[in-house]
Amino acid sequence: MEDEKIIELFFARSNDAVMELDRKYGMSMIKVAKNILKNSEDAQECLNDAYLGIWRAIPPARPSPLSAFVHKIIRNIAIKRYRKNTAQMRDERQNISLEEIADVLPDNSDISDGTENSELTEIINGFLSSLDKTNLYIFMRKYWYFDSVTDIAKRIDMTDASVYLRLDRMKKRLYKHLVEKGVMK
Question: How far, in Å, are 106, 121, 142, 166 from residue 169 at the CA level?
Answer without folding.
Answer: 18, 20, 14, 5
